[in-house]
Specification:
Layout: H1 2-43, H2 62-74, H3 77-91, H4 108-123, H5 125-144, H6 156-159, H7 166-201
Helix pairs in contact: 1-5, 3-4, 4-5
Amino acid sequence: AMPDQMLHSMDLLAFGWIPEVWTWFYIVSQDIWICVLLYVMVVSKYGNLKLGKDTDEPEYSLITWFSMLFSAGVAIGLFYYSVAEPVWHYKGWGGARWTHGNKGYGNDNEDSIHALMVTWYHWGLHGWIPYTTLGAVLAIMTYRRGFPMTIRYCLWPLIGERCYGWVGDVIDTLSIMTTVFGVCTSLGLGAMQLNQGFQRLNHGFFRGVNYA
């Protein structure tokens, strides 16, 4: 019973308290990242900085490079959630935030607009900005400054030599944990998609859980 209670408490924390209290902070932080990155790329002198040595040449063409980034960033969500997520927010299945009549929105047109707004927030600039920011900093510190490719050295300008001590170890440990959680989430969503596909193809052969 104790593990079940613990999982239930973690579920309430992850899907209840955190979204209700800290959603504003997440949205504002993404907006700030976009503004900072646009300033760096368009206004500052670092906009044309090469993510490598000045003499380095690209290993892949622009189209190949973009295709790899797009496939790795969107990953398994492209085939399913491009359609399912806006419908999910519109219909309000499974606790979706934009439901009929929620927060005063009472008609189909307003519900559909807000459903698309949330979807574009997840898959648009706000969804890509963490990848872009972290990838750029990691590339600069690794390929231009010569540091090992770990997250601790992304903070070298802030903490300096402490990267080599326990502070750096804590940073790398946290980065590994968050990466594992992110990969597990993607794999879990993929398993749910496969499960639902098998359910729709053959109910008699595959007795999985219907998540629809």
